[in-house]
Amino acid sequence: MLTWIIVILLVLWLLGYFGPTVFAGFPSSGNIVHVLLVIVVVLVILNLLGAI
């Protein structure tokens, strides 16, 4: 389950980062990209440590 959350957050981060340049009508996300990246990194670290 945690793996799916990480994958979904990573996909959302990639869409937020590359979305406006790839898709012309895609809105720019601003700071949400950085928040998603931090969440993904924290979840990956917790998964590697076995805390979750």
Please outline what is shown here.
The chain has one domain.
The span between the termini is 10 Å
Helix/sheet category:
mainly alpha
The SSE order reads HH
How many beta-strand segments? 0
Q: For the CA atoms, what is the radius of gyration? A: 13 Å
Helix proportion range: over 70%
Number of continuous helical runs: 2
Q: Sheet bearing the most strands, described?
A: none
Q: Residue ranges: pLDDT <50 for 5 or more in a row?
A: none
Rough outline: elongated
Domain module count? 1
Average the pLDDT over all residues and give the rounded result. 75
**Strand percentage:** under 5%
Structural overview:
It is built from two helices and no strands. The chain has helices at 2-22, 32-49. The chain is mainly alpha-helical.
Keywords for this entry:
75% helix, mainly alpha, 52 residues
List the helices and strands and how they pair.
Elements: H1 2-22, H2 32-49
